[in-house]
Amino acid sequence: MDLREPLERFHREHRDILSFLQEWEQVLARAASEDPDVRCRALQRLRDLRERIHQIQQHCSEEERSSESVFRLYLDETLFDELRREHARLQEFVQAYLDAVAQLTTPPPAQQLVTLGQSLIEHLRRHIALEERLLEQIQNSAEAEERILLRYTQAAE
Asked: Which domains, ranges and CATH numbers included, belong to the chain?
């Protein structure tokens, strides 16, 4: 199986998520502003960002549930279980944040929401770093298997 396309897709999705995290972090900073107008616009933007956060949840779900997932196909059971546990922790964290956003009514925002959002962003960054390490491990393993297969087929000739 050629892993280049699925690995590049995951890398691309991770880059997109990391870019989104920068935007989200900036909105959270504005939500903590003392200026009521800035804060109010930021709170609305936080509400608007919920769909993108749901997409991150779907990304995580796809990584472990798809029968074609490179994680499912190439990680040993111990690492795959670690990834599933990490996704479960992340899902709980995301849900707590989304619940807090859903409870927003009027400014000022609860500092708890800003703190929770910042913690979630850090957790997502660590999670992506973990997955990037796992993808590299899979890629290196697949490349080693290809070299062995190539040597074997050349030796048979």
From this structure: 4-156 (1.20.120)
pLDDT digits (tens, 9 = 90+) for 113-146: 788 888 999 999 999 999 999 988 888 887 767 7
Phi and psi, residue 106, nearest 5°: -135, 160
CB 118 within 8 A of CB 55: no
CB contact at 8 A, 120 and 94 = yes
pTM for the predicted model, two decimal places: 0.74
Q: Which of 143-157 are b and which e, b meaning 16 or more Cβ less than 10 Å from the residue's Cβ?
A: eeeeeeeeeeeeeee
pLDDT for 60-109, tens place per residue?
888 888 878 888 888 889 999 999 999 999 999 999 888 888 887 654 55
Handedness of CA 56, 57, 61, 62 (dihedral sign): negative
**Residues 38/108, Cβ–Cβ less than 8 Å:** no
